């Protein structure tokens, strides 16, 4: 019986065109008849003439073999016969062969297959490839333990698209316009089997790629070109050895520590050890692509390993610190130790050489236990580095953030940071996120800690690519870490790696995991570590000889032992808190001089004109034009400087002195209360203009930065804190919309700002403006919770600072007091004082955070104005030896500033207060004509407490009863902070000390304020009246 093929070809009356030329190259009828069965020649090699019977015999032979076993013939022939079965016409085959002969296609079947491929098949095939691109990661083998059983994905099954076993060896064409990777045009035609194999290898192997959510086709194509390579990418032997070496360090460092310190917590990396070779490869490649500085923020897990093996912190030091040795006081003359922190929170910085001979500066930020809190701090620091190094395209300074799986999914700050990642004044050109995913958070399983399939799903909202990788496949790990570096340097955007491993021990090493994850830990006990897995792989594939594998282990073991032995003699050095920019800055143990903050009048005027000048062709809003006119008028007359102008003068003069000023927060450009107008908008063209960017000729771009932020407190405050620790010559300010919103950023206040210097010896001059004041706006928006900030001030309420009159103005007592406190809390009542307190932040030899209760109604209060003279270098009052911030403002009746001023005996009462309530007290006092009877003192600085000045006032008013007046309820505000300090001051001046300081204010309340306007007004009137009523 003639074969189907021969019959069909013959039916055309002649052997069709090109197919008529078919003739076996090697296979002759004799050969076919011989005992040893010849290999069938691939169709594509068949070029000779085919006119005789032998050809058809050959064809028949082949077909017979194909019918009995399709695999016994070359796959091109199998495809050929299958095409025939599917009804491909003889003409089609003939034309295909013609094309092949003309060299237009690489195989006659290419053309045949294309012609044979129905439109439906093409579409289904594309759908299938797309399904792998979109969902392949759901079928990837990501869990080293293999216990995470994910349901099969039907869209990845060729049967879902109507393909059968029969189609596997058919060749298909996949080309699509504008598509890289497997679907790129011009790719070789492949059998379905080959296509499937590459798809599975690519998308369902040890790496799960998620990128199809990215709406930019260029970026997708860029990734596809790297992911969907025609052939699998292999590392060279040298590269494999490097990975092995780095993995050995990682694994053996942990096991060494485990052996030496059996009972210590170290939050080891075991189960995710391939993080280290991954990070090192990432940094090597990033350095080759221009990165000079890397700032890392990371949690507890694997921190010591990263310090030792990625940062290259000397192992001796790591071991010495692990043994808990504290820095030796007096080494290199420094006693600045702070209160310290546990070893897995400490930061450090090193210069690390890379494989290609470059050097990268690496900093690891200190961080608190609060997971993810360091994220935006890290970004802020990088952003500052980029500013100072003119890194305009942000490719020389790079942040890396490490995360735990539980924390990445659970902590909202992760989203806040991602949301900030592309904002013009917050972007850092991309953060690399590395999730060390050990599939458990303390004792909680993923199914109880997140609602999404992956812990990284939040990143997809921001269109970041996400690469999941099986931590046991070290080469795959290195591959995606390198891909992440390349992505960041190319697209300046965030990228996420989800390194999926396990946690070999409990949450820490002395914790029992079997209590809660018995099945997982049975699997872990049976599971080889990642180093063994990689060693086995290399030995099995024969790429590295056994001796070399052992040689690396022996070397690492020996070096670890040597370092351990040297650690005993290791002398801890002085606190490494000073980076180069901070040279010359003082620790709290070194006295720094107090400097004046007044500015020469001509500079003040120059700056004043500059900050009120708008371009000629600019059309401001009518009201803004008036504001600017009024400001200019203030400079011209030298009178009535208001809050907004005082601030602009502070910024402008600091800029003129070469400093950097950055103000960020919600709606800060205009100012929540429409008082700032730092950015003005052209009403015709819509363009924005910022006068403070043009204070002097040659001002650097961004030297003055004012930026509305995302609607986040936690994230943005963290960012500004990070920004502030990079370089001391910057006034960095975060302003809350209303002070009460600051509690959304409480972690930054508690864990970083108030305690960072004590824990990590890192100074920050960050300034925080918190609008505060009781205007009858209800429970929210009245209180910035002053009491909480005061409570966190670490000053001893009973300890008076050293008061040495001879050093009154050269630093003595004031220096020691302010330098040793953790932060300053102020509530200014005059524009000039605001000006000086801002300038004071930079005119010092140390840096301290400043928390300021910022005003609301004082912004436009007719009495809250200052003459320009109060900003100037030369004091109006000859008794004032220097113009600077007033920590206490005396009563208007007093002028003498001496230590022991003349007494004002007629005064029956002295009311101490802070903030805008002063103006209400003063107005009412004037109304009641009690100026000679009741003195009002303003405590502009609440912490550190101005003991010296309060004592002076106690001496001045020997007969006056002391009252504290405040708007806040008794359990809030400054009362409970001030009381012991006032008592101590009274005691020190020999006055009788009352058991309780008399109080005029709202009663204790659960809520910060009443919601009823009338009640507010009554309460306010009462507290003012009571304060002034000497019989009360
Ligand atoms: C904000 C915050 N809440 C709670 C904790 C207590 N805590 C410490 S580690 C941990 C589990 C973290 O899990 P994961 O993020 O997966 O990291 P892993 O320890 O598994 O590496 C928790 C809840 C914390 N440190 N920070
Ligand atoms: Mg975890």
UniProtKB/TrEMBL annotation:
The keyword Lyase does not apply. Its EC number is 1.2.4.2. GO terms for cellular component: mitochondrial matrix; oxoglutarate dehydrogenase complex. Its cofactor is Mg(2+); thiamine diphosphate. GO terms for molecular function: metal ion binding; oxoglutarate dehydrogenase (succinyl-transferring) activity; thiamine pyrophosphate binding. It is found in: Mitochondrion matrix. GO terms for biological process: tricarboxylic acid cycle. CDD domains: TPP_E1_OGDC_like (cd02016). It catalyses: N(6)-[(R)-lipoyl]-L-lysyl-[protein] + 2-oxoglutarate + H(+) = N(6)-[(R)-S(8)-succinyldihydrolipoyl]-L-lysyl-[protein] + CO2. Residues 641-861 form the Transketolase-like pyrimidine-binding domain. Keywords: Magnesium, Metal-binding, Mitochondrion, Oxidoreductase, Thiamine pyrophosphate, Transit peptide, Tricarboxylic acid cycle. The 2-oxoglutarate dehydrogenase complex catalyzes the overall conversion of 2-oxoglutarate to succinyl-CoA and CO(2). It contains multiple copies of three enzymatic components: 2-oxoglutarate dehydrogenase (E1), dihydrolipoamide succinyltransferase (E2) and lipoamide dehydrogenase (E3). Belongs to the alpha-ketoglutarate dehydrogenase family. This is 2-oxoglutarate dehydrogenase, mitochondrial. It comes from Micractinium conductrix.
């Amino acid at each position: 019986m003639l074969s189907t093929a021969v019959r069909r070809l013959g039916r055309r009356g002649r052997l069709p065109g090109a197919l008529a030329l078919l003739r076996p190259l090697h296979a002759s009828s004799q050969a076919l008849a011989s005992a040893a069965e010849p290999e069938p020649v691939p169709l594509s090699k068949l070029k000779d003439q085919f006119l005789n019977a032998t050809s058809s015999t050959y064809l028949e032979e082949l077909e017979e073999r194909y019918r009995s076993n399709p695999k016994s013939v070359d796959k091109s022939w199998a495809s050929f016969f299958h095409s025939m079965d599917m009804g491909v016409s003889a003409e089609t085959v003939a034309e295909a062969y013609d094309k092949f002969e003309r060299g237009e296609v690489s195989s006659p079947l290419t053309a045949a297959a294309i012609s044979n491929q129905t439109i439906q098949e093409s579409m289904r095939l594309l759908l299938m490839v797309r399904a792998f691109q979109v969902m392949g990661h759901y079928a990837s083998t990501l869990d080293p333990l293999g216990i995470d059983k994910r349901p099969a994905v039907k869209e990845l099954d060729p049967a879902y698209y109507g393909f059968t076993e029969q189609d596997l060896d058919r060749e298909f064409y996949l080309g699509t316009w504008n598509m890289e990777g497997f679907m790129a045009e011009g790719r070789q035609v492949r059998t379905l089997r080959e296509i499937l194999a590459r798809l599975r290898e690519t998308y369902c192997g040890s790496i799960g790629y998620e990128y199809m959510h990215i709406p930019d086709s260029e970026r997708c194509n860029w990734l596809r070109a790297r992911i969907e390579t025609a052939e699998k990418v292999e590392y060279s032997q040298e590269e494999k050895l490097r990975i092995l070496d780095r993995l050995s360090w990682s694994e053996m460092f942990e096991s060494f520590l485990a052996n030496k310190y059996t009972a210590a917590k170290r939050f080891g990396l075991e189960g995710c050890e391939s993080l280290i070779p991954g990070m090192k490869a990432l940094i090597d490649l990033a350095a080759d692509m221009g990165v000079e500085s890397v700032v890392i923020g990371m949690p507890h897990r694997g921190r010591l390993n990263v310090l030792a093996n990625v940062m290259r912190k000397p192992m001796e030091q790591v071991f010495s610190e692990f043994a808990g040795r504290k820095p030796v006081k007096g080494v290199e003359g420094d006693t600045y130790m702070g209160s310290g922190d546990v070893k897995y929170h400490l930061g450090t910085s090193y210069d690390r050489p890379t494989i290609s001979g470059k050097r990268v500066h690496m900093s690891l930020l200190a961080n608190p236990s609060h997971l993810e809190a360091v994220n935006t701090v890290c970004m802020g620091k990088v952003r500052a580095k980029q500013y100072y190094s003119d890194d305009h395209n942000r490719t020389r300074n790079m942040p890396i953030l490490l995360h735990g799986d539980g924390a990445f999914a659970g902590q909202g700050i992760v989203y806040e940071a991602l949301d900030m990642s592309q904002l013009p004044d917050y972007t850092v050109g991309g953060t690399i996120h590395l999730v060390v995913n050990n599939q458990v958070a303390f004792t909680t399983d993923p199914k109880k800690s997140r609602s999404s399939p992956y812990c990284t799903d939040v990143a997809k909202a921001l269109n970041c690519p996400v690469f999941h990788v099986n931590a046991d496949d070290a080469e795959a790990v290195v591959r995606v870490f390198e891909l992440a570096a390349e992505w960041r340097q190319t697209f300046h955007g965030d990228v996420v790696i989800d390194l999926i491993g396990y946690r070999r021990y409990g949450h820490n090493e002395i914790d029992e995991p079997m209590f809660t994850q018995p099945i997982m830990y049975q699997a872990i006990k049976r599971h080889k570590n990642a180093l063994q897995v990689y060693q086995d792989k290399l030995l099995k594939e024969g790429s590295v000889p056994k001796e070399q594998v052992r040689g690396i282990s022996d070397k690492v073991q020996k070096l670890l032992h040597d370092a351990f032995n040297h650690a005993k003699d290791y002398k801890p050095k002085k606190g490494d808190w000073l980076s180069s920019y901070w040279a010359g800055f003082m620790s709290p143990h070194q006295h720094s001089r107090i400097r004046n903050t007044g500015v020469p009048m001509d500079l003040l005027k120059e700056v004043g004109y500059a900050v009120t000048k708008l371009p000629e062709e600019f059309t401001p809003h009518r009201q803004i034009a008036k504001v600017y006119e009024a400001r200019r008028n203030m400079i011209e007359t030298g009178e009535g400087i208001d809050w907004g102008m005082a601030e602009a003068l502070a910024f402008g003069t600091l800029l003129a002195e070469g400093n950097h000023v950055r103000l960020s927060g919600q709606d800060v450009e205009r100012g929540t209360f429409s008082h700032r107008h730092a950015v003005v908008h052209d009403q015709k063209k819509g363009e924005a203009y910022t006068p403070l960017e043009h204070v002097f000729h040659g001002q650097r771009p961004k030297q003055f930065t004012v930026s509305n932020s995302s609607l986040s407190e936690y994230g943005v405050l963290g960012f500004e804190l990070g920004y502030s620790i990079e370089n001391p010559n910057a006034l960095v300010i975060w302003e809350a919309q209303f002070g009460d919103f600051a509690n959304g950023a409480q972690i930054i206040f508690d864990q970083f700002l108030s305690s960072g210097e004590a824990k990590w010896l890192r100074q920050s001059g960050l300034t925080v403006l918190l609008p505060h004041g009781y205007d009858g706006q209800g429970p929210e928006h009245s209180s910035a919770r002053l009491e909480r900030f005061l409570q966190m001030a670490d000053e001893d309420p009973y300890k008076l600072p050293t008061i040495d009159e001879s050093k009154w103005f050269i630093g003595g007592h004031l220096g020691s007091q302010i330098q040793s406190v953790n932060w300053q809390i102020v509530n200014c009542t005059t524009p000039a004082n605001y000006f000086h307190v801002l300038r004071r932040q930079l005119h010092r030899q140390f840096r301290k955070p400043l928390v300021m209760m910022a005003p609301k109604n004082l912004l436009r209060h007719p009495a809250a104005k200052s003459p320009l003279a109060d900003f100037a270098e030369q004091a109006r009052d000859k008794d004032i030896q220097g113009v600077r911030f007033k920590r206490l403002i005396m009563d208007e009746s007093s002028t003498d500033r001496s230590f022991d001023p003349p007494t004002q005996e007629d005064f029956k009462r002295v009311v101490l207060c802070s903030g805008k309530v002063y103006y209400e007290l003063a107005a009412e006092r004037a109304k009641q004509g009690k100026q000679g009877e009741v003195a009002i003192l303003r405590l502009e600085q609440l912490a550190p407490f101005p003991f010296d000045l309060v004592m002076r006032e106690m001496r001045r008013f020997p007969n006056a009863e002391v009252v504290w007046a405040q708007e806040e309820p008794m359990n809030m505000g400054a009362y409970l902070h001030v009381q012991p300090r006032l008592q101590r001051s009274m005691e020190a001046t020999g006055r009788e000390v009352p058991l309780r300081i008399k109080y005029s204010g709202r009663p204790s309340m659960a809520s910060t304020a009443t919601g009823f306007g009338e009640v507010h007004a009554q309460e306010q009137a009462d507290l003012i009246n009571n304060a002034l009523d000497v019989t009360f």
